Amino acid sequence: MTKSQQEAFLIVDIGTGNVRVALVETRGALLDMQRDNLLYTEDGEQHEAWSFDPAVVWEQVMTLSKKILDNNRDVRVRAITASSQREGIILLDKTGKALIGLPNHDHRGRPWENETDQKDHIYQLVGRYPTALFSALKLRGIKEKQPELYRRTEKILSISDWAQYMFSGVMGYEHSQASETLLYDIEAMEWSVELCETFGISPDLLPGLHHSGTVLGRILPEKAQQLELPLDIPVIVGGADTQLAIKSTQPEPGDIVIVSGTTTPVVQIIEAYKVDSHQRTWTGRHIDQGAFVLEANAGVTGLNFQRLKEIFYPNESYEVMEKELQAVSGDPCVASLGSLLANETVPLTKGAFIFNAPVSGQLTRAGFVKAILWDIACSIKENYEVLGEVVPYEKEHVWACGGGFQSHTLAQQIADLIGKKVRLRDNFSQASVVGGALVCNEALGSRETFSTAISEFRPQNPVGLEAAYQAWKKLRSTLHQLNKKEDKA
């Protein structure tokens, strides 16, 4: 097939750190990608309140889309879809104009977290312990502190559903995104009037539900004109970035998938609704109809890794970093940087690197990075074991995807710690957009075959594995003790 015959999907991915637009060939190959930073504003009058301007984000989407299409005018766009960060929402007025965007890290609803004494019952319905992370409490914060803004709000949409609405003019809420609201009954697969009453949110704000991998509508004429696209291009329902990333690995029911993005979800695909009796995990809808994802999340591990890579390797590639990592002998440094463990009820708010003093000449920048990766790998192991307590896992492999796995050292560390093969597919580092291509093909009834190439990391049981793991646990315990002392001071 010549380039002039190539067909592709335009995929918008609005993550936590940036806005990306990708052009993905119908067989899953990434043709081009453009990105820009997603900018947030902190509301000084409300603690932990963050927002973004949807108008600015939409301008970024259109600018990036125009650039990518101008660079690839000989590629035919078959469809458009969107992916986005979970828990984020956008409020719209009665004309459909976006009023404000609330990202996943907006916690303006924190003061109302403990207003209900029905948390056990809520967990059974929504598959997650109710906190200010989720959309219902973001809305509650708006209602209480910005009542005029709440009164102007006619509908709420997830960020990916809003992007699709902007392209098509059709509103709706996709099921995996609805799972993150605390207003959606996961097992019944419908909005819950009971939950709306519990959180003091009007059910009228919630649009109709729709399934990922279905046609939402056609591109609006004005958007088609701006992007110089045909009028008949379908807009496809995408979904939450984690679920689309999971889909990119093409897992089977029962498989475990590790997604190393801004955070690190460790998830298992399950076919029947199940929650953890100890309330340590999340259960949500997958983008595949009839399937659920059981999740334990290691927190902002990927964000930690990216920020510290920028410090230690600001101008070098992953290949350069990996070469230096292979030269590190032993474990000259141990790190704990605030990852989350499903078994812990109190999060770490302090991070640390520990190494012998005086500083050894063997301690290099690669030694620090190896410790960062070990912290991530150990956190994944702990959360993986919690999943196994809820649903036993007997398969010999797990799937992995996301930008963090550009470090093969991380993949090998995980394989060694959990004693399972770690498998990566082609384009694993762009998992959300590859998942978007898969749902576009489903919506169009296409049977395109994606690459079956797999990289596999087998457990090697290296010398000192258990000692290094125990050193990490000891450091983490020390930091928890430090947290307790500071809380008492």
Question: What can be said about this structure in brief?
Answer:
The chain is α+β, with helices and mostly antiparallel strands and 489 residues long. The chain has 15 helices and 25 strands. The protein has two domains: 3-237, Nucleotidyltransferase, domain 5; 247-489, Nucleotidyltransferase, domain 5 (2-Layer Sandwich).
Structural commentary:
- This protein folds into two domains: 3-237, ATPase, nucleotide binding domain (Nucleotidyltransferase, domain 5); 247-489, ATPase, nucleotide binding domain (Nucleotidyltransferase, domain 5).
- The protein is 35% helix and 22% strand.
- It has 15 helices and 25 strands.
- It has a seven-stranded mixed sheet. Strands 3-2-1-6-16 form a five-stranded mixed sheet, with helices on both faces.
- Strand 2 and strand 3 form a beta hairpin.
- Helix 10 packs antiparallel against helix 12, helix 11 (318-326) packs across helix 12 (365-390) and helix 12 packs across helix 13 (408-418).
- The protein is globular.
- The model has no long low-confidence stretch (mean pLDDT 93).
